[in-house]
Amino acid sequence: MNILAIDQARNGAWSVYNYERGELIGYGTYEFPLEKYTYAKAIMHIKELIYAVMKAYDVEAVFVEDIQMRASVSSFKKLAQLQGVLVNLFEENEYLYGYIAPSQWQNFCKARGRNTKEKNARIIELEHSGKKQSKILSIQFVKDQFGIDTDNDDLADAICQGYYIVNAVEILKTDKSVKKRGEKK
In whole angstroms, what is the distance from residue 85 CA to residue 43 CA? Predict the structure, then answer.
C-alpha cells in the first residue's frame, strides 16, 4: 500500500512511501505565491495537485500534519480552510486519512531541539539562516537517512512525516482506521 504524507500550506510539500516496505518512492514541493494566487485559488490548485499525486502513485491512505494555534489567528484559519478542503477530497474519494501531530514525527525523527554538544557543522550553518531548530533538524534527518540534500524545510518535514507513519502508525484497512503501532484500539 502506498501512503501520502502532506506538509500542507500555501507553499508545502508531500512524500509518498510504500507502507509495507517503508520505502520512500516519491516526493515534491509546491508553491502558490501570494503575488500570483489568492488563497482560495491556491487551495484549489493544492487540492488538484494532491489529487494528481494520489492518482499517480496509487495512494490508499493520506496523512496531513495537524494544525495548531500559534501567534497568528489568520494563518490558523487559512490552514484550517486548506485542511478542510483536503479532508473533503479524501472523503469524496473514500481515501483512508489521518492527522499527524508535529510533535509525534519530530520526536520520532529527533527533530526537536538538541544541545550544543550534539550539533554538527551543518546544523550550526543552517541556524544562521534563521530557520527554527526543528526545521534544521528535519533537514539534517532527511540528509542522514535518505541522502537528500535540501534546504527546503517543507520537503524535509513531509519526508519525516511519512517516515514516522511507515515506522510508527498501524493502518488497519478493514475498518478504515489508523492507530499508532502497538497502541490498543
Answer: 8
Give me the tens of pLDDT residue by residue for the chain, a chain 185 residues long.
Answer: 999 999 999 899 999 999 999 999 999 999 999 999 999 999 999 999 999 999 999 999 999 998 887 778 888 899 999 999 999 999 999 999 999 999 899 999 988 765 444 445 444 454 444 446 778 899 999 999 999 999 999 999 999 999 999 999 998 865 555 655 555 44
The candidate with the shortest Cα–Cα distance to 157, out of 174, 80, 148, is 148
- Is 44 in a helix, a strand, or coil? helix
Distances (CA, A) of 33 to 54, 71, 93, 154, 155: 23, 21, 28, 15, 17
CA dist 158 and 111 (Å) reads 13
| Element at 127 (helix H, strand E) | helix 121-127
Beta strands 11-18 and 2-7 are antiparallel
